[in-house]
Design a protein that fits this description.
9 strands, alpha+beta, 2 helices, 3-stranded antiparallel sheet, 211 residues
């Protein structure tokens, strides 16, 4: 009998202990609010900045034109175009230049600004041809573009270097680096029958000015 009482008492105590334990847990959870403390989030923001400087830069990726040795004709003024081939390069098939044609200078806009282009020669057409006769003496340039590298104002007809060290318009708007940032420059020379023998050389200067 006493043993049954003892067992019954132990059972009651065990149940009370369980109830107390559950109650304490519930009270603790209620005090903690919606979740477990000690876990938090926060955001901070920063900035990265960069300033790109303007760069006006043009580059002659092909900076020379070589006619080679050119022949004369005793009865007519000959015309040689460096950007032509065959009959379009010369007016007399029997008096050819020995160079390889077409032969042009190639100018590229390697900066990040659109520019206006001017071109000049350190020698005039008359001095370059060097002929005593009054026949037409021509040393001229022409602008050529196949990809729209010059937005407007490209000099597409031959323009004579009438005066030395004088700027002539080549292009009004030479675009920045892209698929359309190149302009070719061809040259024309006319040689009268009395053009003096010797080597001809001219320094060509192209200037790009920011628009």
């Amino acid at each position: 009998m006493s043993e049954d009482v003892s067992n019954r008492g132990l059972a009651v105590l065990l149940v009370l202990a369980i109830v107390v334990s559950i109650g304490g847990t519930m009270i603790s959870l209620n005090k903690m609010g919606t979740g477990i403390t000690g876990y938090a989030t926060d955001n901070e923001t920063g900035t990265a900045s960069l300033e790109i400087e303007s760069l006006v830069q043009i580059t002659l990726t092909d900076a020379s034109v070589d006619y080679g040795i050119c022949g004369l004709n005793s009865s007519q003024v000959l015309t040689y175009d460096s950007n032509g081939t065959g009959a379009s390069q010369e007016t007399d098939d029997s008096s050819t230049c020995s160079g390889t044609f077409p032969d042009v200078m190639t100018l590229e806009n390697t900066g990040n600004k659109d520019v206006n282009l001017t071109i000049k020669s350190d020698t005039s057409a008359a001095d370059f041809v060097n002929a005593p006769s009054s026949d037409l003496k021509t040393f001229a340039f022409v602008g050529i573009t196949n990809d729209g590298g010059c937005v407007n104002g490209l000099q597409t007809t031959f323009t004579n270097f009438t005066a030395a060290a004088t700027d002539y318009l080549l292009c009004n708007n030479f675009t920045t680096p892209s698929a359309t940032d190149e302009v070719d420059i061809g040259f024309r020379v006319t040689l009268p029958p009395d053009a003096q023998t010797g080597v001809r050389s001219a320094t060509i200067t192209i200037t790009g000015e920011e628009i």
